[in-house]
Amino acid sequence: MSEDKSLFTRIDELVAEEHGLRTKHAAGEIGDGDERTRLQQLEVELDQCWDLLRQRRAKREFGEDPEAAAARPADVVEGYLN
User: 10 Å Cβ neighbour count for 58?
Assistant: First the structure.
């Protein structure tokens, strides 16, 4: 479960950075391009974190080792259909 806590901590950090970017952009401290680029990177990393957390939970639920879960590449995670 400590790995899950680490994932939640990382998710919190990424969300805080996202809010900080939006605040800086609103204050005119960073431009549209810089904000957009970093927000896209944050979105991908958040998706990867959430995906890994879901994998770990599924493995635990079905009696498998959650430590066997691994972060998937960005192109895989971003290719999921809603």
Answer: 12
Task: Write out pLDDT tens, residues 15-52.
Answer: 999 999 999 999 999 999 999 999 999 999 999 999 99
User: What letter represents residue 55's amino acid?
Assistant: Q
Contact 71, 65 (CB under 8 A): no
Asked whether the whole model's pTM tops 0.90, one would answer no
**Tokens describing residue 59:** 């493995």
DSSP 3: H
Residue of 78, 22, 19, 20 lying closest to 50 (CA atoms): 78
Categorize the per-residue pLDDT at 80 as very low, low, confident or very high, splitting at 50, 70 and 90: confident
Tokens at 27, concatenated = 């204050």
Residue 2 tokens read as 């400590």
